[in-house]
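pinned: reference chain
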Amino acid sequence: MRTTSRSESENSFFSHFTSPTSTLVKFMVLYESAMEKQRYIQERLDHNSIDSFPTLLTPLAIEVHAARVYTRKLFVLVQKEIIAGSWLCSIMSKTCDELCDVSVISEEILVPGTIPEVVDEEESTSENVEEELILYQKVTRRYKVVYNKLDGSVVCCCQLFVRCGILCRHIFCVFKNCNVLKVPDQYILKRWTRDLIPPDLRRQKARYGQENEEIEKLAIEASSLVESCVSMMIENQPKLTSFLNKLRKLKSEVESDMPKVPARTVSQMVHQFLGVKKPLKNKVKNPSKASNKGYMKDRIKGGREIALEESKKQKKGCGICGLKDHNRRTCPHRSGAAGSLVDGASVIGLDAAGGSGAGGCGVNGAS
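pinned: its structure tokens
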């Protein structure tokens, strides 16, 4: 996995728990919640692998050994190879040397068949008129397996163990012929086993501050011992009842010996979580949130983009002087314009009155 892909995977996982506005204390609490989710998934998978036994499909002892060693998901893959090595593979020839046995394994594989071509009526003959449609056809392939009986090493030309870390069906076919009851230890990778993570490390929680690691290890070991005892006696009701009575008696003795601890306050829990006391005065404040360009919905616009948008807007001009850089209320000629407007109105009124008087005189003179 590349570094970029690993970072994207981590960001996708932690984005469900954290937020950009989280404080440092909240971030640590949310980080612990994310780790708790991974621990829960690990505990569930370990329970399926340890506390239950898978269904066996062959009477071979090597399948039983694989079910007890591998995890559940890996055992399903190994079981497919064991079944294929028992039913689809066979030994064609075998040569024995002083140290090694060389076997040639034939495997029958179903591959998609060929679809017949469409033939015109004019070109059709008695040979190609009728052609059978074959969807699948059997193909036999050969593989070479070298098995050393002294050190238990085995090599197959398909190189499945080199690519995936599990033995192939051709090797299991050789193991069946040689009556091998267990998978060799050198071919059981540690990462595929059920006991890879010890109980004390699996249930250990990442806490900050001062803690006693010895007490934590003892507590984890005690809980794992109780769970293992319960899993062993899950089908025996009398022993499980007796074990429960002993636990109740032990609990009553512990309660009588240990004093009652009062409930802790929030400040005490924060002090235990961080390992430092809360200061009397807050000197360091949380930083303000910085929004990156293009991240939020209302992105930050540049000066050129703002100028272009302003130039496209239709501006209204002033009603007094006609310019577009101001309006009627902020016009510098507003004081002088008000008097001119009044004088103009009076002149218009006098002209109207004079016109009417002259008209009247003319009418009277004419009359």
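why pinned: Confidence is low (pLDDT under 50) at residues 339-367. The longest strand covers residues 100-112.
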